[in-house]
C-alpha cells in the first residue's frame, strides 16, 4: 500500500502519495502509467488535479467535499498498485531494451506475457492490442540481470547462424562448380582416344581381324 503524506497549505488542500519502488520498478515511464491509471478512476473535473511531478492531488480549499471524495478514490486505486500489469513501453524503460528485443524475447518465451489489452488511443480510429506483463516477472528479469544473459545468448546464436550460412553458401558454390565440370567435354580423354586409334586403317588393311 502507498505511503500517504498529508498537509494543508494556505490556499490549497494538498495530499500526496509516495509510490513504492515495487510499483514503479525504478521507471519514470511506469510512474506516469500509474498516474494515468489512477486518473482513469477520478471524476472528469478532478483528473487533471493529480500531478505526477510531486505525486499530489490539489483542489481549492472551498471544494473540501470534492477533494475528500477524489482523495478517497486515489487511495483506494493505489491499494495493490504493485500488481498493475506492465505495458510494453514500460517494459522497455524498466529493462532498458529495444522494441526489437522485446518482440524477439516475447516470441521465444523468455519474456512471459500474461495476456493482451486492447485500447483506443487518442487521435486514432482503430484500436490497438498489445501484450501486458506481470510486474513480478519483469522485476525478476531485472534483479537477475537476465537481459545481459539473453543478449550474450543472442550474440552466440547469431554467430552460429552466420557460420552455418557461410557453410551452406560454400557447399552450394562447390556443387555448382562440380556440375559445370561434369558437363564440360573431357579433352584429355578424347586426346588419348585419338592416339589409340592412330594407324587403325593400316591395321585393318592387313586383315589381322579376319
UniProtKB/TrEMBL annotation:
Residues 167-179 have a biased composition (Basic residues). It comes from the Bacteria. Residues 167-195 are annotated as: Disordered. This is Uncharacterized protein. It comes from Mesorhizobium muleiense. The lineage of its organism: Bacteria, Pseudomonadati, Pseudomonadota, Alphaproteobacteria, Hyphomicrobiales.
Amino acid at each position: 500500500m502507498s505511503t500517504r503524506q498529508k498537509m494543508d497549505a494556505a490556499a490549497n488542500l494538498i495530499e500526496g502519495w509516495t509510490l513504492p519502488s515495487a510499483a514503479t520498478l525504478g521507471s519514470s515511464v511506469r510512474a506516469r502509467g500509474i498516474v494515468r491509471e489512477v486518473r482513469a478512476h477520478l471524476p472528469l473535473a478532478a483528473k487533471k488535479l493529480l500531478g505526477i511531478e510531486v505525486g499530489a492531488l490539489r483542489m481549492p480549499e472551498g471544494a473540501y467535499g470534492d477533494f475528500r471524495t477524489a482523495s478517497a478514490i486515489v487511495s483506494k486505486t493505489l491499494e495493490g498498485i504493485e500488481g498493475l500489469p506492465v505495458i510494453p513501453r514500460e517494459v522497455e524503460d524498466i529493462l532498458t531494451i529495444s522494441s526489437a528485443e522485446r518482440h524477439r524475447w516475447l516470441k521465444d518465451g523468455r519474456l512471459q506475457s500474461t495476456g493482451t489489452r486492447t485500447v483506443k488511443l487518442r487521435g486514432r480510429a482503430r484500436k490497438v492490442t498489445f501484450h501486458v506483463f506481470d510486474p513480478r516477472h519483469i522485476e525478476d528479469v531485472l534483479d537477475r540481470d537476465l537481459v545481459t544473459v539473453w543478449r550474450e545468448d543472442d550474440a552466440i546464436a547469431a554467430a552460429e547462424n552466420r557460420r552455418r550460412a557461410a557453410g551452406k553458401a560454400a557447399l552450394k558454390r562447390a556443387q555448382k562448380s562440380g556440375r559445370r565440370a561434369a558437363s564440360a567435354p573431357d579433352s584429355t580423354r578424347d586426346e588419348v582416344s585419338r592416339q589409340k586409334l592412330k594407324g587403325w586403317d593400316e591395321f585393318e588393311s592387313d586383315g589381322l581381324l579376319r
